């Protein structure tokens, strides 16, 4: 298979593999196992009773709600941005591309702080918000905003390279055949990117549910009201309720595993269509 | 059915450069017209302007009597065939062909049974019966391009536009498809515009050929016109494997390097360009009309032989066709006579000069 002239000697190869595997085991697999081990350390009963707790249930509900709002919003935004960037040229295009990447390069804490500075009691728009009696900071809208900001790039980033690679010839063909713009989008553009889109949604969802930093800044940690799952884990841990903390953490870890499996299945089944997409 | 396409002063500028430069073109109803030119000559832009895929910056475009300048691409009823097929990857061959019929508004959409019948007919026409259920990825390049043509024909277009339709195919398939396209054109009778950079393809396939250069029309005419009576130095240099020689012209005579010969010069005088094709030169005995040349190389090409000869130091080599039985060798001296004269004044703008 491999040309002996360009291959490393066997022991170098084995050493490299051993280092990689050892690193993965130590830093990824072991912590993952530790989460489940801790969660189940006093048996299944205490583990399950965590989820009967009202505050825990509220945290799970809030996390699901935030993801259910943030992911569709970024789905629409991601498709629109990718469409605009890949198929048209307009002034300010490269600026838009950089802006999409901004949440990747900014610390999540800063992302959260931005909203506090904007909408907080002493913020720019704070007085306006209190006039309208509409709470954003230390309330659900703030958490949604922060999550949308942080998960902004995921879907757009998956779609842009693929759409750019595919070009516009199929859309032009549909137009000359008499299809309207919307029809062209639904019957040509969308089917061509469907797997990359699903891939992006998976990653976006995982991040939306798991986001800690930005959400922590705007949430205010009000139990049963503004606590998401990651925040709830921290609170339980700080209260030395290790079983409950790791039980909630195990749900998040489970979500990560499901995402990983889904991602792998997509890559395996539709790798050719995702080929243009930069791997994460 | 077949309509004329008329472009009047049509122009398109990209980034400050005129891709199509105030161009006038009249395509006759039912005609198969080739747009031929080097890359960057504006031929594809012109085709896309006709299709409505680009908006013109100047001029008008007529389909028959109707002004189509501002008509959206989807309302023009043109069939467009792309170089790289642009088939819908996720649809079957039959669904690709049916696409243009299915996207029609309900009032004008044929019933499903009628659509199926049309698809069947078109699959017959492009000789792909039985492949309707395949996906584009399961077809060869030639088959894909035939599906693309069937898809374009399905909407009963007023004009058919093909952008380098055979550009991505290998030589054998190109030749087959060329003959087959001519055949389809004869049967369906659409006004057809096709873009190519392959002059053999254009001259063999088209009723008329339009030669484009830098967004302008150099010449439009039958293949005979283009080959035998090139209107400009550009056309003379572009078609027929011509070699350009810089010469000095005086009335009735030109000087190639140090050798004068008497030929009809028309009213060309001063520095001029002489275009010589391999078959323009006839080997002869020495005489007043003959040029002497040194043989640089000889090679076999198909049924004949060709020799590279030079009329003097510093002059580019010219090809001459010889019979296969010829015993001419490298280093020999040949005497040749010009059988066709394509002489153009060297204008200040290089190759753009018109025949004077």
From TrEMBL, chain A:
The chain positions of domain ABC transmembrane type-1 read 60-261
Which subcellular locations apply to this protein? Cell inner membrane
Instruction: Identify the GO cellular component terms for this protein.
Output: plasma membrane
Kindly list the GO molecular function terms attached to this UniProt entry.
Answer: ABC-type sulfate transporter activity
Give the membrane topology, semicolon-separated if more than one: Multi-pass membrane protein
Signal sequence, start to end: none
Recorded hits in SUPFAM superfamilies, A to Z, give: MetI-like
Q: Where are the transmembrane segments?
A: 12-39, 59-83, 95-116, 136-156, 242-261
Q: Does the keyword Transport apply?
A: yes
Annotated keywords: Cell inner membrane, Cell membrane, Membrane, Sulfate transport, Transmembrane, Transmembrane helix, Transport
Entries under NCBIfam families matching the protein: 3a0106s02, permease_CysW
What's the protein called, per UniProt? Answer: Sulfate transport system permease protein CysW
The organism encoding this protein is Enhydrobacter aerosaccus
TrEMBL record, chain B:
| UniProt entry keywords in alphabetical sequence | ATP-binding, Nucleotide-binding, Sulfate transport, Translocase, Transport
> Which SMART domains would you find in this protein's record?
AAA
Q: Which BP terms from GO are recorded? A: quaternary ammonium group transport
The UniProt GO MF terms for this protein read: ABC-type sulfate transporter activity; ATP binding; ATP hydrolysis activity
List cellular component terms (GO).
Answer: ATP-binding cassette (ABC) transporter complex
Any single Pfam family the record assigns to this protein: ABC_tran
Q: List each copy of the ABC transporter domain by range.
A: 5-239
On whether Manganese is a keyword of this UniProt record, the answer is no
Family, similarity comment:
Belongs to the ABC transporter superfamily.
Q: NCBIfam families this protein is in?
A: 3a0106s01
The name under which this protein is listed is Sulfate transport system ATP-binding protein
Species this chain originates from: Enhydrobacter aerosaccus
Which lineage is the organism of this entry classified under, starting from the top rank?
Bacteria, Pseudomonadati, Pseudomonadota, Alphaproteobacteria, Hyphomicrobiales
């Amino acid at each position: 298979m491999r040309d002996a002239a360009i291959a490393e000697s066997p022991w170098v190869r084995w050493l490299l593999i051993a280092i990689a595997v050892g690193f993965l085991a130590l830093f990824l697999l072991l912590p993952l196992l530790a989460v489940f081990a801790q969660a189940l350390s006093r048996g299944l009963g205490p583990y399950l009773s965590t989820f009967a707790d009202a505050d825990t249930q509220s945290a799970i509900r809030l996390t699901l709600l935030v993801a259910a709002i943030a992911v569709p919003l970024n789905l629409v935004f991601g498709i629109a941005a990718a469409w605009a960037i890949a198929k048209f040229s307009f002034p300010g295009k490269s600026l838009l591309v950089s802006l999409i990447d901004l949440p990747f390069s900014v610390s999540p804490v800063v992302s959260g702080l931005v909203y506090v500075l904007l909408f907080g009691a002493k913020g720019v728009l704070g007085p306006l918000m209190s006039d309208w009696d509409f709470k954003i900071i230390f309330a659900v809208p703030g958490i949604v905003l922060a999550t949308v900001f942080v998960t902004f790039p995921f879907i757009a980033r998956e779609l842009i390279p693929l759409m750019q690679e595919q070009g516009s010839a199929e859309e032009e063909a549909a137009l000359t055949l008499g299809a309207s713009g919307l029809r062209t989008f639904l019957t040509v553009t969308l089917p061509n990117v469907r797997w990359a889109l699903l891939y992006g949604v998976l990653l976006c969802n995982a991040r939306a549910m798991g986001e800690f930093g930005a959400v922590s800044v705007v949430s205010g940690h009000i139990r049963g009201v503004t606590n998401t799952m990651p925040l709830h884990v921290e609170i339980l841990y700080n209260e030395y309720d290790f079983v409950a903390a790791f039980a909630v953490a195990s749900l998040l870890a489970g979500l990560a595993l499901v995402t990983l499996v889904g991602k792998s299945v997509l890559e395996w089944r539709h790798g050719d269509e995702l080929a243009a997409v930069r791997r994460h | 059915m077949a309509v004329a396409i008329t472009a009047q002063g049509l122009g398109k500028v990209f980034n400050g450069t005129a891709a199509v430069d105030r161009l006038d073109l009249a395509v006759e109803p039912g005609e198969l017209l080739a747009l031929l030119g080097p890359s960057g000559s504006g031929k594809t832009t012109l085709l896309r302007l006709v299709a409505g895929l680009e908006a013109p910056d100047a001029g008008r475009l007529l389909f028959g009597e109707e002004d189509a300048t501002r008509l959206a691409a989807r309302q023009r009823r043109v069939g467009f065939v792309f170089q790289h097929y642009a088939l819908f990857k996720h649809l079957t061959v039959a669904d690709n062909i049916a696409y243009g019929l299915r996207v029609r508004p309900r009032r004008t959409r044929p019933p499903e049974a009628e659509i199926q019948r049309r698809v069947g007919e078109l699959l017959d026409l492009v000789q792909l019966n039985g492949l309707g259920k395949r996906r584009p990825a399961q077809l060869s390049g030639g088959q894909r391009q035939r599906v693309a043509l069937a898809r374009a024909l399905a909407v009963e277009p007023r004009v058919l536009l093909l952008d380098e339709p055979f550009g991505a195919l290998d030589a054998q398939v190109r030749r087959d498809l060329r003959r087959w396209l001519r055949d389809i054109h004869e049967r369906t009778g659409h006004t057809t515009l096709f873009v190519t950079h392959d002059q053999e393809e254009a001259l063999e396939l088209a009723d008329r050929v339009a030669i484009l250069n830098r967004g302008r029309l150099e010449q439009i005419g039958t293949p005979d016109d283009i080959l035998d009576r090139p209107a400009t130095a550009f056309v003379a240099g572009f078609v027929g494997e011509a070699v350009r020689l810089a010469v000095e012209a005086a009335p009735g005579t030109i000087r190639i390097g140090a050798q004068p010969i008497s030929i009809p010069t028309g009213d060309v005088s001063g520095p001029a360009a002489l275009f010589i094709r391999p078959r323009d030169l006839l080997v002869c005995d020495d005489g007043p009309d003959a040029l002497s040349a040194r043989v640089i190389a000889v090679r076999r090409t198909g049924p004949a032989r060709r020799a590279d000869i030079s009329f003097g130091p510093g002059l580019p080599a010219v090809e001459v066709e010889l019979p296969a039985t010829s015993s001419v060798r490298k280093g020999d001296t040949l005497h040749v006579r010009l059988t066709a004269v394509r002489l153009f004044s060297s204008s200040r703008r290089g190759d753009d000069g018109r025949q004077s």
